[in-house]
Amino acid sequence: MKLLVINGPNLNMLGIREPQIYGYSTYADLVRYINDVCTKNDIVSEIYQSNHEGNIIDRIQQAYMVFDAIVINPAAYTHTSIAIADAIKSVNIPSVEVHLSDITKREDFRKHSFTSNSCLKTIMGKGFDGYEEAILFLKDYLNKC
Ligand code: DQA
Question: Which of 6, 25, 103, 131 gets mutated to test ligand 1 (max ligand atoms within 8 A of its CB)?
Answer without folding.
Answer: 103
